[in-house]
Design goal:
Layout: E1 6-9, E2 13-14, H1 25-38, E3 44-49, E4 52-57, H2 59-69, E5 74-79, H3 84-96, H4 103-116, H5 121-128, H6 132-140, H7 146-153, H8 159-165, H9 170-182, H10 189-200, H11 220-223, H12 239-257, E6 263-267, E7 276-277, H13 288-294, E8 300-305, E9 314-319, H14 322-345, H15 382-402, H16 404-418, H17 425-436, H18 445-454, H19 457-471, H20 480-487, H21 499-502, H22 507-517, H23 519-523, H24 526-532, H25 535-543
Parallel strand pairs: 2-4, 3-5, 6-8
Antiparallel strand pairs: 1-5, 3-4, 7-9, 8-9
Length: 563
């Protein structure tokens, strides 16, 4: 909903969630002079929040009006009804589109927008109205220490200085910055760059095998034998080679984790807002039940760090959908608050009023604590779907073959709705030949009918049953659950937990299945040890569990009633 431009008393408006943290004194003085002389011409954007109005965009104009004209000044405003997320995004985009916003503030804004775009840099650049290269440069600034960001905000250093410092581990930036600002005049970016070359590619920080670096002519130790002036010993001067080898190691680590998690991502500078640690308890906990459900989510996985100072580190149990994570944390907190309120209302039963359940304990949960109330299960990846359809088709054919009455009902039902489009003439002809040792004609309907008429009743009965059985191999998969339901198929008679199925899953999904079927409890103390092994070792330990009855245990992802 949007209202027309109106006037509002400046004192009735409050500061909002402005990403701009530094207001240049000279620019503000110019704006104050303009407002004092002519007033505020361009309206500011505000939104109602409880019993006041909050600025979304235009804080500098509001500040100038408050200082030069006072709280009673009627300032032009545009009022919109906005959520916190909508207000944040409008404020970010409005600020980064204006001139003279600090690159450091732009970097923070860009990182937040990237988080809202779930890590899609092209989409984030489009929202900001930037080129992809500009976005990448700004995001690289996110590796600057707070002091460097503040110095850039306050125009004490130039953008080029900050971009160079962003390549340096944060624990060294403070000292370098202090030395830089202590000089009588700020060194040029080119001079500063020359002084930082050795820091950017120190071989001691390499995560790759450095065996070949000893004789490389880009090794600064070898350069010292050739040049009077060279980067100090122990550094690489070929950044492209250094970075290429680093990328190979990062990619190898990512690949090695793919069998364990649905999603594995190499996280780079500025992408901090696209991933969050998944925990059950604490201020950012989603609760035990939801945490278990999240392990099979397509957005659950591991992060491989490509951030200087943490290069190559692996962070497991991560969520790559921050918006969903925030929602689940909120749902857990609301559920606990409701549970505490219910405890107070029923204190007459003898239970202490106001007692709160432990974080993540599951007490007082709402349906929302498990992804919309859905039961924990593994993801419907294509390989799992293909496996499930194959299992269903095999089970359906066996059940149809064993029940002549339902076989006939199913045949009539298929012919009433699908016609004969799914009937395989080749399979029927092969079946007739197998039963009678007679080769059926390929195109003469009358001759084929004559041959069937000459066959005995048992052959015709088997052929009739074979029609619907032949259809099950080609009928569309979305019909299968209904067909299985009509046949009342007990899947436990046709399937038992096996290595072929488990091998389709990631380790985190195997954990979900183990908990769902009760294998985790059956293994007891051995489960934790089994889980730390390789995927094939984990599967073997589960399938060799002696204290578990595998009969009748069908995971939800294979149950036709759950699809």
């Amino acid at each position: 909903m949007q209202q027309a431009i109106t006037q509002m008393r400046a004192g009735d408006i409050r500061q909002g969630r402005n990403p701009r943290t530094y207001f240049d004194p000279v620019e503000m003085a110019e704006m104050e002079a303009s407002v004092a002389a002519k007033g505020v011409i361009q309206p500011i954007l505000i939104r109602p929040v409880e019993d006041w109005y909050e600025i979304v965009a235009g804080e500098r104009r509001w500040r100038a009006a408050m200082k030069t004209r006072g709280e009673d000044y009627e300032i032009p405003v545009l009022v919109r009804i906005l959520s916190d997320d909508e207000a944040d995004e409008l404020a970010l985009i409005e600020n980064v589109s204006r001139a003279n916003m600090s690159p450091a503030e732009e970097a923070v804004a860009a990182a937040k927008i990237l988080g809202r775009c779930e890590g899609n840099r092209d989409e984030a650049a489009k929202r900001l109205g930037w080129s992809r290269s500009t976005l990448d440069k700004r995001l690289a600034l996110m590796n600057c220490s707070p002091s460097v960001m503040a110095a850039l905000n306050e125009r004490k250093i130039q953008l080029g200085h900050a971009e160079l410092l962003a390549a340096v581990p944060k624990d060294r930036q403070e000292k370098v910055l202090a030395n830089l600002l202590a000089q009588p005049s700020l060194p040029s970016v080119a001079l500063f760059k020359a002084g930082l070359e050795e820091i950017a590619k120190a071989l001691s920080t390499a995560i790759f095998d450095k065996e070949g670096c000893g004789t490389c002519h880009h090794n600064s130790g070898n350069q010292q034998a050739l040049f009077a002036e060279a980067v100090s010993d122990g550094h690489c001067t070929n950044g492209a080679c250094f970075d290429g080898k680093t990328e190979e190691v990062l990619e190898a680590k990512r690949k090695s984790l793919e069998e364990n998690y649905p999603k594995v991502v190499i996280v780079r500078q500025g992408e901090n807002n696209t991933v969050v640690k998944l925990v059950a308890d604490g201020a950012t906990g989603v609760g035990n039940e939801q945490a278990a459900a999240c392990r099979s989510c397509k957005s659950f996985g591991a992060a491989v760090s490509a951030i200087p100072g943490k290069m190559g580190n692996v962070y497991e149990s991560q969520c790559f959908d921050p918006a969903c994570h925030t929602k689940k944390v909120g749902e857990r907190l609301l559920a606990e608050k409701a549970a505490a309120g219910n405890g107070a209302a029923t204190s007459a039963t003898g239970k202490p009023a106001g007692t709160k359940p432990a974080a993540g304990s599951g007490a007082g949960k709402s349906k929302a604590t498990t992804k919309g109330g859905a039961a924990t299960s593994v993801q419907d990846s294509q390989r799992v779907v293909d496996y499930r359809i194959e299992v269903w088709r095999k089970a359906l054919k066996k059940e149809l073959y064993a029940d002549a009455d339902k076989n006939l009902c199913m045949l009539i039902g298929v012919m009433m709705t699908r016609g004969g489009s799914n009937v395989s003439s080749t399979k029927l002809a092969s079946g007739f030949e197998a039963l009678t040792s007679q080769k059926a004609p390929s195109s003469n309907v009358g001759e084929a009918a004559e041959m069937v008429g000459q066959a005995d009743e048992e052959v015709r009965s088997k052929m009739l049953s074979g029609i619907i059985i032949s259809i099950t191999d080609s009928i569309e998969k979305h019909h299968l659950p209904g067909m299985l339901k009509f046949m009342q198929v007990d899947m436990s008679k046709h399937w038992k937990l096996n290595a072929d199925f488990l091998d389709l899953l990631t380790k985190s999904e195997i954990e979900v299945v183990a908990e769902e079927l009760g294998l985790k409890v059956a293994l007891g103390e051995q489960y934790a040890k089994a889980k730390t092994g390789k995927k094939n070792e984990f599967i073997k330990a589960l399938l060799e569990c002696k204290n578990f009855d595998f009969e009748g245990k069908i995971p939800k992802v294979l149950q036709y009633s759950a699809v």
